[in-house]
Design a protein that fits this description.
Elements lengths: L1 H17 L7 H11 L5 H13 L4 E3 L8 E3 L6 E5 L5 E4 L25 E4 L7 H6 L1
Parallel strand pairs: 3-5
Antiparallel strand pairs: 1-2, 3-4
Helix pairs in contact: 1-2, 1-3, 2-3
The protein binds zinc ion (ZN) (2 copies).
The site of one zinc ion has 8 residues, from loops.
């Protein structure tokens, strides 16, 4: 049945996202999904990611360097760190005060439904030794 196949594809894509912390691109998810479903297409992966996003099970991350969109299956509130050198993208805890955003002091906001906070810089593996010494 059509529905069952679609449900299975979505389940596999969600499993791939839950099994990694790298925030893969759709292409990387596609490569992993093909090991399980050899005839899956990249278009199908994109459609399923869009569906899962609509269901609030997956979120899309736009990298700071303008590269390919990355995907995240971790929906608990957290911030993302982007390394501009190697493209690493990893989870960091939200700074204090961000867990419970307040809109009482901001004009024009009726309701906050999500937080999308990005920290941008160099990861520990990429930091230049000279820069580390001068600062
Ligand atoms: Zn890096
Ligand atoms: Zn994340």
């Amino acid at each position: 049945m059509k529905k069952t196949r679609h449900t299975r594809q979505r389940g596999i894509i969600l499993d791939i996202l839950h099994d990694t912390k790298t925030h893969p691109t759709a292409e990387a998810i596609y490569r992993d999904a093909r090991r399980i479903i050899p005839n899956i297409s990249l278009g199908t992966v994109y459609r399923n990611l869009g569906f899962l996003q609509g269901q609030g099970l997956v979120r899309e991350i736009r990298p700071a360097d303008g590269g390919s969109t990355r995907f995240d299956g971790e929906m608990a509130a957290h911030a993302h760190f982007h390394c501009l050198n190697c493209g690493a993208l990893f989870d960091v805890p939200l700074p204090q005060g961000f867990e419970q955003p307040s809109c009482s002091d901001a004009e024009g906001i009726a309701r906050i439904s999500a937080i999308d906070l990005h920290l941008i810089g160099s990861c520990a593996g990429c930091a230049e030794p000279e820069m580390a010494l001068t600062h």
